[in-house]
Specification:
The structure holds two protein chains of two kinds. Chain A is an alpha+beta fold. Chain A has three domains: about 1-115, DNA Polymerase III, subunit A, domain 2 (DNA Polymerase III, Chain A, domain 2), CATH 3.10.150; about 125-245, DNA Polymerase III, subunit A, domain 2 (DNA Polymerase III, Chain A, domain 2, Roll); about 250-370, DNA Polymerase III, Chain A, domain 2. Helices cover about 20% and strands about 40% of the residues of chain A. In chain A, the strands form four sheets. Chain A has a nine-stranded antiparallel β-sheet. Chain A has an eight-stranded antiparallel β-sheet with strand order 6-2-3-4-17-16-15-10. In chain A, helix 5 packs antiparallel against helix 6. Chain A is elongated. Chain A starts with a strand and ends in a 5-residue tail after the last strand. The relative contact order of chain A is 0.11. By secondary structure, chain B is an alpha+beta fold. Chain B contains 14 helices and 13 strands. Chain B has helices at about 15-20, 45-50, 60-65, 75-90, 115, 120-135, 145-155, 170-175, 185-195, 200-205, 210-225, 255-275, 310-325, 355-375; strands at about 5-10, 30-35, 40-45, 70-75, 100, 105-110, 140-145, 160-165, 245-255, 280-290, 295-305, 330-345, 345-350. In chain B, helix 4 (about 75-90) runs antiparallel to helix 6 (about 120-135) and helix 12 packs antiparallel against helix 13. The chains are: A alpha+beta, B alpha+beta. The interface of A and B includes residues 149, 176 and 370 of A. Strand 27 of chain A pairs antiparallel with strand 13 of chain B, so a sheet runs across the interface.
Amino acid sequence: MKLSCLQEKLSKGLGIVSRAVATRSTLPITQNILLVGEPSRLKVSATNLEIATTSWVGAKVEEEGSITIPARLLVDFVNSLPSDLIEITLPPDSHTLELKSGHFQAHINGIDAQDFPPTPEISDGITASVKATNLREGIKQVTFTAAMEESRPVLTGINTEFDKEQLTLVAADGFRLAVHKTTLSSPIKEPTTVIIPARTFNEVNRILGEQEEPVEITINQQKSQILFHLENAEIVSQLIPGSFPNYSQIIPQSYNVRAVVGINEFIQAIKASSIFARDSSGIVRLVITPGSELSQGKITVSAQAEEVGGNVSELDSLVDGEEAKIAFNVRYLSDVLSAIPQAQVAIEITNSSSPGIIRPIGTDNYVHVIMPMFVQWEN
Amino acid sequence: MARCIFHIDLDAFFVSAEQAAVPELKEKIVIVGGSPGHRGVVASASYEARSFGIHAGMPSSQARHLCPRAVFLQPNFPRYKEASAKFMKILASFSPEIEPLGLDEAYLNATGCEGLHGTPRDLALLIKGRIRQELDISASVGIAKCKVIAKVASDLCKPDGLLEIAPGEERDFLRPLPIKKLPGIGSKTEETLHTLGISTIGELALLPLEIVKSRFGLLGVTLLQHANGIDERRVTAQGEPKSFSLEVTFPRDTSDRHLIETTLHHLCQRVGENLRRQNKSARCIAIKLRYSNFETITRQITLKESGNATQFIFRTAAELLNKALPQRGNPFRLIGVSASLLTGQGKQLPLLDPEMERLTRLDQAIDQIRQKYGAPAIQQGIDDD
């Protein structure tokens, strides 16, 4: 293999795939990046066997060929080079890659490309296409809700439903639930539901960057793998087998009080309370008081830390319904509020031990359900 | 005003309580603890017994070997609790600020009591007299301007002693003492300090802060202050518990997985009961294992959510046990479990999982039955999978 490419291009390509490199693995070659010299481009791939990412770098290829190189070494060395042309050479029958740029030169021992796990081919299957902005918003509003623990694997994934023109992303971790709906660029032939690892979605989001073009999605016939075709990369991921809990019945269909509040003020109040809440199980208390002819409705946000102190903030709010008190884990509130781009949110409460709902005002494509914390209320 | 803190410690408490109840025992060498035939350990030894080298924590069989004449008594906890309650009541009649440390010792804030009871020494003698009179037990009292000095002083003047350290003399008092006399220095810390060439509290006091900090962390900072006679801790009435823990020594060393697990379950059940009674939940669960060669390991995990359900504690503890077990082939002597990082009220309710609610109700039912009919009335089995 013999080729040359620009340092910035190579660095960018390596940056795209490097997160897919296995960190700890029983298969050492998965800690390498696969380099393939193709006609007029260099293909770079990495996989941790759950996800495989491939990107292409424009190159002048004199001789085709392939090799795998330890990821850390390659990425660190290329990033240390000046932005200049890099000549990459793999002598015939050799496993030592030579890199040369100006006065810099390195050789790195690799492993034969034959041993690299092949990236699954997903050509025929169910295909869909979604606008990049819609997918970005969905990922941002849903993935943080997925469970981190592996005790129930399906909850570490995003339940992804394709139905006609609608794409629904759902995540839940046992204490909260997020549902985001968006439209597909074109209707899908048959309704399909798969569970995509939250890690995969986060990686898609990272690589998506500011991409404007729609994202092409293909799911294989067995519904075991999914391919995201992005502008500058392809990501293939395993899907999580199993079935997601029936979430629709968890979303309350009614409420006793609904309060609308400016999101920035709400975030600020939550942030102030979190300082005290972190010393008391993260409890933040909301008291919602309806307005009267003389006064406006309000939400009181407070936190108390035993032996330390406490705080109270009052927010003006449009309140519809009766007075209500509810306590939440402060992190759950701040997570959802910081994922909503709209200027206002509505919070809907049934009682202090039933799930509360947060919805952005001005769109009906997002619902977030949080289970409250059980606390003692004085009076 | 300079503070005046007492540390009052009942001498050989369990033994003294037994001797107070059965006066004939007063002439005898008495040891309270597990019987030497089985495998108990010494819980308390009379001062006569201590002169044979017998101390709390020693296997009873060894104690019998050292002093065959000793009288061994099974612990009688209701008796000790009753005596302890009287002891605390006596202290409370002298000062509103007392801080019990276990059953048989307490701090008492005597700051500003001079007008009422004379000098601190007069007050201490008064307290000792009342304890002697009402409990027939001797007590040792340390007097100083801070807690740590008072405690070291009472320990040094046992039994039936009284030692007052005048303000300003704290460092001179501590300087020659071996480091293990300083509360908070266990055998591990002592060992580490010895490797640094430190054997007296005075030497510890001269160590640079950075060294102590890097070796022992926050604990080291506190130890260094204490070694210099600085201790600003207040006497606080009955602080909130920081953790709940229980441990048990097996009747004989065991490698029997099933026995170890059922014992662990039993401990978890009781720790859970204690947590629930106080309306607490724990986020950190730890287990302690002691091998037959007395080597002791602890393993702990801090969880995202706190809990107090027996199953919650047991599952977490069993996982720690599973990870710890394959490490060594030695049989076990002791197993313990502890729950810490306690949170008071406030429990995250589950959204998807009705299981947590179910476990809460199960524990409530079991706790109620046990409170009414005693612990043996109902036992929870464990899954064999």
